[in-house]
Amino acid sequence: MASTRYEWGSTGSSGAGKYAGFGTPEDYRDYLLRMHKIGRKAGPNFAFDLPTQCGYDSDDPRAEGEVGKVGVAIDSLKDFETVYEAYHDDLEIDKVSSNFTMNAAASVIIAMYAVLAEKRGIPLEKLRGTPQNDILKEYVGRETHIFPPRPALRLFRDTAVYCAKNIPKLNVTSIGGYHMREAGATREMDLAYSMAIGAAYLQTAIDGGLDIDEIAPRVSFNGFGGSMEIYKEIAFQRAARRMWAKMLKERFGAKNPRGMMIRQISTAHIGCSSTTLQRPLNNVARAVVGGISAGMSGALPFAAMPPYDEPLGLGHSLEAQQLGHDATRILIYEAKLGEVNDPWAGSYFMEKLTDDIEKTATAEFEKIEKMGGALGAIESGYMQESVSRNAYTKQRKLENQEEFIVGVNCFNGPHEIEVKSERSLEDVYPSELKDTAGARKVESLKKLKAERNNDEVKQHLATLKNNARDEQVNLMPDIINCVRSYATLQEICDTLRGVFGVAQASTI
């Protein structure tokens, strides 16, 4: 089957742009403005710092040293307004898509987005974007959670129902099997757990009053995990499409074909954990393997991620980005890899491999369903323990040379050489700003708390606490009221912690 060909480059669009975020809201806003000046006029794709992800404000002692470090610090609606000063006129928020990589506090971020639109006079039904809002995988793959699984799933219900009724163009979740694979899950675990988590979200939304054909088209996938095993990753993507469509149609009775599709930003890839610190230029070849896998599994052959210097942890150099972009262009324009959607259709080898992966993943999925679904399997610790055990097994295989990584546990003798390259970094975050981000953020938060109507804040937080005790109440209107009064993210999360309790980190 011939596929549609697309231009591929580095220019912006009306979608969400490059995943980014650092420092204070002012720092991130200024970065976005610089990107706009060089033609990258896409919507924001927020990376949040760890305190924000875990429901803490910048002035909490537990946030010290982490403010603005791995993402932008967002404490209140005021911070959100500051970031979006970069978006107006032709880039008004109803003209671009916004992505929010937030899970545990997704309800608060969605509320900020809604109030921002309200204050700008923009109808909510015009807003587009994707909050990750995939809290269940946090207990398995990342652990940036706040509340125990059950009340966290209740908040998913509240956001899903609110968005379906008020912001219908907003995806309600972006399921991330990728994180679980990176944490140690096998390929089949990745698929089974993603399906189980997706089923939990769909059933939760249905129990909240939504129709399957209303919610399913708004469920997206952040992506599954990846590896260097090119044939298995192609088969994995084929099996995933089968399992999702079958579950939607047979279990949930979906009729809308869009809801039976797996919508994800890419298909097969190698995963960042496949890149190596040793002989990092080899990662260019590895990324190309991922691009070929993607091109043969129904997507553009994207070979720009991860850049070769990903494991160095110093930021992606201009050289690494150029090599990645050119690798993708070569696969598209020279190798013409994007001209056929499914070149493996009818291949006995690929169909058998797809069947095998689907069979194993389905058996694991059914096992989880007998535990009470994803929620029961997480509460019992089954998923977490399975991932941890396999991570250990995988590491032992590398140490015993049962599996091989070139330049790491093989082909690393004295006759091998280290191939080096120049690395030039964009000066996007000067040290004078980086070193003062925490202090500047604490000072701005102090100013906000002094200037807002604190009686109004207390009133809305009290109402939120009272309604949180009633499982049947949708908390989004209360969270929106809190946000509108400039209650902080931690004040809202602490109020809910007082009712829901706090999730305990896995000790496996």
Verbal overview:
This protein has 508 residues and is mainly alpha-helical. The protein is 49% helix and 5% strand. The protein has helices spanning 25-37, 50-53, 77-83, 106-119, 136-142, 149-166, 177-183, 187-207, 212-215, 230-251, 282-295, 318-334, 348-370, 373-379, 382-399, 431-434, 437-451, 454-468, 476-484, 489-500, and strands at residues 16-20, 43-46, 97-100, 128-131, 173-175, 219-221. The strands form 2 sheets. Strands 1-2-3-4 form a 4-stranded parallel beta sheet, with helices on one face. A two-stranded parallel sheet has the order 5-6. α18 packs antiparallel against α19 and α18 runs parallel beside α20. The longest helix is centred in the C-terminal third of the chain and has 23 residues, at 348-370. The protein starts with 15 loop residues before the first strand and ends in an 8-residue tail after the last helix.
Poorly predicted runs are 1-13
The CATH homologous superfamily of the largest domain is named Methylmalonyl-CoA mutase
Helix-strand makeup class: mainly alpha
Q: List SSEs in N-to-C order.
A: EHEHHEHEHHEHHHEHHHHHHHHHHH
Stated plainly, the CATH topology of the largest domain is called TIM Barrel
Strand order of the largest sheet: 1-2-3-4
Q: What is the typical, i.e. mean, pLDDT?
A: 93
Oligomer: single chain
Proportion of residues in extended strands: under 5%
CATH class call of the largest domain: Alpha Beta
